[in-house]
Design goal:
Strand content: 15-25%
Structural class: alpha/beta
Order of helices and strands: EHEHEHEEHEHHEEHEHHEEH
Strand order of the largest sheet: 7-6-8-11-10-9
Helix content: 25-40%
Shape: globular
Number of helices: 10
Radius of gyration: 20 Å
Number of strands: 11
Length: 349
Amino acid sequence: MLRIAIIGATGAVGRECLALLDSGIVPVEQVVPVGSARSVGRDLGAELALSLPMAPLVTIGDLDPQGLDVAIFCAGVDVSNREAERLASAGVLIVDNSSAFRMRPDVPLVVPQVNPGALADRPVSHLVANPNCSTIQLVRALHPLHELAALESVVVATYQAASGGGLRGLEELAEGSRRLLEDRSAPSGPGGRFGQPLPFNLVPEIGLQDDSGLTHEERKLVREPRKILGLPELRVSATAVRVPVFDCHSEAVHVRLREPVTTAAVEEALAATPGLRVYSRSDSPSYPMPRSVFARPQDRALVHVGRIRVEPEDPRAVAVWVVADNLWVGAALNAVQIVELATKNGWLG
């Protein structure tokens, strides 16, 4: 039985972690919710209708690491940089959702369905990194393609939902959409969480651009798949776009393989992969969409792949459309499954 702290428990990802722990994925003795000073006293168990054994909400400064097995960080890179290694030095296993430690050589970057061997042993650093939300669904679709015919290059365009900006991002999209529906000539106001107004808009910039023009989000999509897949020379080109959708990220993925394939072989490889739902041309609809993926818990836990096609002029070129719930598959569920894998491997709990 595990004692687990959720850092950032009142945020969008933290709430989903609590709900997933409540479903019994891992054996829990007690959950310690951690939030800001203004959240102290909130009864998250009652607010979220949870049956988890929960301690009172505390601030990170008041969190006692003694007796704590795991801390899942969902509070952003600044909090992770400031507090994660302090708790790790006390022997707590840290599963970090931020970008703080992902590219450190001594920190495994883990998607349990893709590189479970990275957690065969407990990392000496006591740190495990959760990949970027868009990276997780991408590598889960790429992995069976690599096993089928070996990846040579990847081009991906992501269409990322407002929930990637947390509760504030969701509120901005809802309120801004309401204003524009009431008055299309209403001023759009400041950019807020996304740098530019998101309602009825597309923002092709997620994070700051570097000198080459790549944004922070695009750099993650280039670097992280290489580490997770164990392909340091893999060529990846990424364009990340914020779209006025509440939940679920979508990706248009084009890959070039080292061997020729058929559409039937690609569909078969993807369909045989646990955790993927494949849509064929005979299905109706023949592709996943954010609204339908988010509608049911069983679909929120899967990576959905459709529009599968091999280019007629090039049998080594494959295109797929990938949709997944960024708060579950892309964050909370992957983090909890990391804890589950560590437990199954026998070195936690």
